[in-house]
Design goal:
The structure holds 2 protein chains of 2 kinds. Chain A is mainly alpha-helical. Helix content of chain A is 69%, strand content 3%. Chain A has a two-stranded antiparallel ribbon. The longest helix of chain A is centred in the middle third of the chain and has 31 residues. Chain A is flat, with a radius of gyration of 25 Å. Chain B is mainly α. Helix content of chain B is 71%, strand content 2%. Chain B has 6 helices and 2 strands. A two-stranded antiparallel sheet of chain B has the order 1-2. Chain B is globular and about 50 Å long. Chain B starts with a helix and ends with a helix. The mean pLDDT of chain B is 85. Chains A and B meet through α4, α5, α6, α7 and α8 of A and α1, α2 and α6 of B.
């Protein structure tokens, strides 16, 4: 189980940069603004502007370009596939044809537009998780959703459960690995035989895993109650979120940029 | 909504179990099987509708904020992944399984079996809808419902039946001893 190494950090790459040190709430809202902005543009100037904006962000974050691109790897196939489908199956004036394949002017345009849009969406969304740790994101989301508490939305509880889950991923993965090794040492055959046999071979792994989960959950609940945990009301934080002038400035600049790009593009296309 | 500390810890740990399950691969004819859905079923069966659905919300949430807990990685970009509908289906499926098994004081084996079957149907329905929408509107490839089902449901049926049986066996034994949360 080699995924253990960087599991708790996920995609997050800790670097000391001006982007990393922004408030997570600022980054979440700014990302939503950018995603909306990318949706609103459709021409070359629009995509170019957002591309340059993204390049600037990457430079400020001091992350390598290759790393950024690799976060979009899971959806590369989707993007390529989408572009190719649009390239060949859009009706219009043909610019090139070979056998039954023909590429139309409209097809080229559609392929570029859809491909670029998907790529930009993926890059911006991935950038958020590259520069913000999961714990920061959970805290930021809790704070952003806390106005909904009035309507019964359990913002604090969800964030608390998320934090517990994040904390316990490495623990449970370790435990699973330990149980598997223990059972193999006792002669369990986990990777031989047909599917049915293998599934049954996993039973001696699952049962102790369950016992551990229930024990851990009970212990943790007892520990929380012993320390007078009563939910989010009046609870203070070890590291409170701080909204600084830099956050306000970043957010305002992002919004201004999005509005400017959208309006200018409308003007240019008209 | 009020939560006891025990509800919160158990729900969180079931989200982690689902993540662990996504990594346990058992080679199977057609597609490799993961134990992910086994824990989806169990979270509904053992934690009830609210707890089960919440643990799956947490699981999907963990993946979306960048942890590689899904079978194909993680991160917010996963929303565009063709299989994202199945992840949403897990939430609905766990809720349905919980809802049915909650109707009984001490659900017997057959109730868990029926609950898990209904839950699986819900997961398939939501997942297929997601796959269909993704292929037709995001990827722009025209796929008929029939083709989508051939891809997204048929290969998983055999493995899921085994997991349903496993869940019903486990839940009917553990559930009776576990105080409802």
């Amino acid at each position: 189980m080699k995924f253990l190494n960087n599991m708790t950090l996920g995609q997050y790459v800790p670097v000391d940069s001006s982007i990393h040190s922004l408030d997570p709430r600022c980054k979440i809202i700014a990302t939503i603004v950018c995603l909306t902005g990318v949706f609103l543009v459709s021409g070359p100037y629009g995509f170019l502007s957002w591309g340059l904006f993204f390049a600037l962000m990457v430079m400020l974050s001091r992350l390598s370009g290759g790393l950024i691109l690799s976060t979009s790897r899971p959806v590369w196939i989707l993007i390529a596939f989408t572009s190719i489908i649009h390239l060949f199956f859009t009706q219009g004036t043909p610019v090139f044809s070979w056998g039954i394949l023909k590429i139309t002017h409209e097809g080229l345009e559609m392929a570029a537009r859809m491909g670029l849009r998907l790529l930009m969406l993926v890059l911006f969304a991935g950038f958020l998780t590259l520069t913000t740790s999961p714990t920061e994101l959970a805290d930021g989301l809790e704070s952003l959703f806390s106005p909904l508490k009035r309507f019964g939305f359990p913002a604090h509880e969800l964030a608390m459960m998320m934090t517990i889950a994040l904390r316990f991923i490495p623990t449970l993965l370790n435990e699973t690995e330990r149980i598997m090794k223990a059972q193999i040492a006792r002669g369990a055959d986990l990777d031989r035989g047909g599917p049915l046999r293998r599934l049954r071979a996993f039973m001696p792994v699952l049962v102790p895993l369950f016992v551990i989960v229930f024990q851990r959950a009970d212990d943790l609940a007892t520990a929380m109650e012993a320390r007078n945990y009563t939910g989010g009301e009046g609870r203070t934080r070890m590291y409170p979120l701080r909204w600084s002038i830099a956050d306000t400035a970043t957010l305002m600049l992002t919004v201004l940029f999005a509005v400017a790009v959208t309006l200018l593009e409308k003007r240019l296309m008209a | 909504m009020r939560f006891s500390a025990r509800t919160m810890t158990l729900t969180a740990l079931f989200a982690v179990l689902t993540a662990v399950g996504a990594f346990i691969r058992i080679p199977f004819p057609l597609v490799p099987m993961t134990l992910q859905t086994l824990f989806v079923f169990l979270s509904g069966a053992l934690l009830g509708s609210r707890g089960g659905a919440l643990s799956q919300v947490l699981y999907v949430g963990m993946g979306l904020i960048g942890l590689p807990v899904f079978t194909g990685g993680g991160g917010p970009q996963y929303i565009l992944h063709p299989t994202f509908g199945y992840l949403l289906g897990f939430i609905a499926g766990a809720w349905v399984i919980g809802f049915i098994s909650e109707r009984f004081e001490k659900p017997p084996f057959l109730v868990y079996l029926a609950a898990c079957f209904s839950g699986t149907l819900v997961i398939y329905a939501v997942g297929t809808a997601g796959l269909y929408l993704n292929l037709n509107f995001i990827a722009g490839k025209e796929a008929t419902l029939r083709q989508v089902i051939d891809f997204g449901v048929i290969p998983f049926i055999a493995g899921d039946i085994l997991k349903i049986l496993g869940t019903a066996v486990l839940a009917s034994r553990v559930g009776a001893r576990l105080k409802r949360i």
